[in-house]
C-alpha cells in the first residue's frame, strides 16, 4: 500500500535512487569499482552486495567496535573489504570460500586495497571450516555475515551462534530472495534454504532479530539482522 498517493516505484526508480544514495552518502564506493571489475574479468558472477549494503556492513562493524568478523562466502572480496574497513586496529576478518580461484582473486583485491593484514581467507566447504574453527577453539566473533550457498543457511546459523560471543551481530544476506521465501513448497532449494534459515533465526533461543526488505539494482531482496543473546 502506498502512502500519501505516491505511486509504487519501478525498477528504473529503484536503480536511480540507489545511484543517488550511493553518490550522496557512500562516495568511497567509487574506489571499490576495481574490485568488482577484477572479479568480472575473471568471469565470476556479479552477486556481490550493493555499495549501500557494503557500507552498512562497514558501519555495523564500526558501531559495535568489532575486532573479529567472520564472513561466509568471499567471492571477489568486495564485502570482505567493506567489513575489514570497519575493523578496530588489529582486527581481522576471517572469510570462508569454497572456490580456490575466488579466494585468489579476492586476496589480490584485498591486498590492492591495503587490507592484507586485516583479512584471512580460508578455502574449502564452509561447513567444514566452521567445524574446524569450533574445534580449534578460535576466539569468538563479534560479527558474522552469512552470504554463501543458500541451501546451508540453517546450518550456518547454528554454527555462527556457536562461534559468536554474547552480544555479537549476525547478518544474513538475500533474506527475501525476490519474494521466493513465501512459498514453503518451492522447488528452488535456495529459496527453501533462506526460508528455513529465517525460521531457524525466529525460533532460536539465543537470537533476537528482524529483517528489512531492500530494492535496488539487484532487485527485490533483504538483510536479516540478529543479536546473539
Ligand atoms: N559476500 C560476497 C558475495 C558472496 S557470493 C560479496 O558480497 O562480495 C557467494 C560465494 O559463496 C561464492 O563465491 C561461492 O563460491 C561461495 N560458496 C558457495 N558454496 C560455498 C560453500 N559450501 N562454502 C564456502 N563458500 C561457498
Ligand atoms: C544472488 C545474489 C546474492 O547476493 C547471492 O549471495 C547469491 C546469488 C543472485 O542474485 O543470484
Ligand atoms: Mg548475497
Characterization of the model:
With 229 residues, this protein is an alpha/beta fold. The chain has a single domain (11-228), classed as Rossmann fold (3-Layer(aba) Sandwich), CATH 3.40.50.150. Helices cover 41% and strands 21% of the residues. It has eight helices and seven strands, in the order αααβαβαβαβαβαββ. It has helices spanning 11-25, 33-41, 51-63, 78-85, 100-112, 126-135, 153-163, 189-203; strands at 68-72, 92-97, 119-123, 141-146, 164-173, 207-214, 221-228. The chain has a seven-stranded mixed beta sheet, sandwiched between helices. A hairpin with a 6-residue loop joins strand 6 (207-214) and strand 7 (221-228). It starts with 10 loop residues before the first helix and ends with a strand. The mean pLDDT is 97. The site of S-adenosyl-L-homocysteine has 18 residues, from helix 4 and strand 2. GO terms for molecular function: O-methyltransferase activity; S-adenosylmethionine-dependent methyltransferase activity. It holds the Pfam family Methyltransf_3. This is O-methyltransferase family 3. It comes from Hoyosella subflava (strain DSM 45089 / JCM 17490 / NBRC 109087 / DQS3-9A1) (Amycolicicoccus subflavus).
Task: Give me some keywords for this one.
229 residues, alpha/beta, Rossmann fold, 7-stranded mixed beta sheet, 8 helices, 7 strands, 21% strand, globular, binds S-adenosyl-L-homocysteine, binds 3,4-dihydroxybenzoic acid, binds magnesium ion
